[in-house]
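Sequence, please.
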């Protein structure tokens, strides 16, 4: 009964807005990873370049440049993982101090609601941030696997296992990048979820704007045009 009482604090519009947020999050992620053949996403175009990178690595001597690039990619995943942890800590701190947040929200929204109302909204933000952290950590580990595979590629281009191992390294690299991009999208939608503190209408607007921003970067950005130019 207590759970039902807490859930009754939210209107049907709140539930619809929350569903809209998750629908856009999952929808844009699926579309980016499964685009139409005639209109590939930036992520998929980059996946092709990652394969080319690993094939070029076979003939490049020495491979210091490749090691440096991969090290930079790992640093990026480590940075965002650390940032996600800090953001999760800040969110948990707000949840633990929801009474003050409720007081501020009451001044803004002119409503008098219990602290659990705001705590649940912050939990949604925390959920996205936690997912982002897990994706970044996994991406970092996969880039580590990729470095081992790259080291296992023979220096002799005539070796029959050289290009097959390079292809394995490419696929692991692509998988790591996919996990990294999923983590970024989770952060984007975590920021959108904070708009729910204002109200369901703000959440819908923030979710839609986030969707448009991500869609543009993946399907209509200037950088994508450059990648497609031959």
């Amino acid at each position: 009964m207590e759970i039902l009482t807490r859930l009754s604090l939210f209107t049907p519009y709140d539930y619809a807005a929350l569903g809209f947020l998750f629908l856009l999050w999952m929808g844009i992620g699926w579309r980016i990873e499964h685009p139409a053949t005639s209109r590939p996403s930036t992520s998929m175009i980059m996946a092709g370049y990652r394969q080319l990178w690993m094939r070029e690595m076979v003939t490049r001597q020495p491979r210091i440049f490749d090691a440096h690039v991969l090290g930079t990619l790992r640093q990026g995943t480590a940075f965002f993982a650390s940032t996600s942890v800090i953001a999760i800590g800040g969110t948990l701190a707000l949840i633990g101090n929801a009474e003050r947040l409720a007081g501020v929200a009451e001044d803004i929204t002119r409503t008098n609601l219990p602290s659990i109302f705001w705590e649940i909204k912050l939990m949604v933000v925390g959920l996205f941030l936690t997912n982002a952290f897990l994706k970044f950590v996994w991406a970092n580990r996969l880039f580590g696997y990729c470095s081992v595979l790259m080291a296992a590629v023979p220096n002799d281009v005539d070796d029959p296992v050289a290009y097959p191992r390079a292809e394995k390294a490419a696929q692991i690299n692509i998988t790591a990048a996919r996990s990294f991009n999923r983590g970024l999208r989770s952060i984007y939608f975590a920021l959108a979820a904070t708009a729910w503190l204002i109200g369901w209408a703000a959440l819908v607007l923030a979710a839609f704007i986030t969707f448009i921003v991500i869609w543009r970067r993946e399907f209509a950005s200037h950088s994508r045009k450059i990648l497609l130019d031959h």
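The chain has a mean pLDDT of 89.
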